[in-house]
Structures are given as structure tokens and as C-alpha cells.
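Quick note —
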Amino acid sequence: MKPVHEILPDTPPLESKGDRPLKFTFENEPDSLIYYHLSENESARELLQKLREDDFAKEHIAPKSGISLSSFSEAINGRGAEQLQYVFQELCLLSRGIIPRQYSDMGNIVLTDGSLTDAVLSMYRADYRGNSRKARGHFGFDLSHGIPSAVCLTAGKGAERPCVSRILSPGQTGVMDRGYNSTIKFLKFVKWKN
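Predicted structure written out below.
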């Protein structure tokens, strides 16, 4: 978690949607979400119980002053999507500087695809049928370094095309399904190279 903790001071702040300041800040969120998934919790209540009772969780994960269900729910309600995207992008940049590049003779290839994902605590019971609320992550994968390179979040039924310009950069070759295809954007991408 050291690289994440080094990025956190520069991360956009997670702001309260109410009148009082958040007791559970974004600095607490990455550790808590990772702990939530690694310890295979099934609910926020179960996570909070572990943060109160488990010695490791109390020492390394929970806020020093503790956390109530209402304070946790208020903070996690905003999901910190903007902050998580920022941390993700910064980790990708950091990783590219550390991991040696392979397949350099093929150029800079980025594989792209989208997927529905169980990304947040409240999505555990989400129903992905009909008109239910959904979220989709569109991900770029840097083939040369063997790591993720970008993420774009949309509504579950959101268009894929707007994400291409957020996932690809000038000089990169994108490999993606036709849902991302746009003749207008393709012509712009070709101009990047010329």
C-alpha cells in the first residue's frame, strides 16, 4: 500500500454532501476496500464489525477514532470514484516507469474492453437485469508492460465510444471491439500519427 499512500496527499479531496465534515475520509477508503475484498466480507456491517474487533483491522485499517455505520455510509455513498480513478492513473504511470517494456518492435499497443464489475460495497446485491442501476468500467491494458493503463467509468448502458479518447493517447494502437468504433474518432486518431 506504500505507493497508494504516497499518492493520497495529491488526490482530489472527497467532500461531504452534508453539513458536517466526513469522519471517514478518502485516505481511509483504499485500505478499507482492499481489506473488505481480501477478507471476503459480505456487507458493510460485517466490515465495520471487523474494524472494531479484529486487531489487525483496528491497527492498520480503521480510522484512529473508529467509525460508525452512519459515518461510513455517508462517506462511501460518494464512492470516491473520482479519487479512485486518480489513484489508478497515478499507479499506472508509476508502474510503467518500473516494469520493463516487452514487444517494443510491435509499438505501443493498448487492448480495450468494457465490463460490468462488482466494484463497490452496495453493488453486491445489484440486479443487472432490466432497468436496474448499473456501472461499467472500460479498461485499457498496456500490452508492452503487461499492466492496466487506463479506466473510464460509465453507466451500465452508457456508450463505449466516448471512452476511447480517455483510454488511448497519441502514438498508441488500440485493439478493441466494434462497440468502440467511430469513423469520426478514427479519422482524428489517424491525424495524431500524421
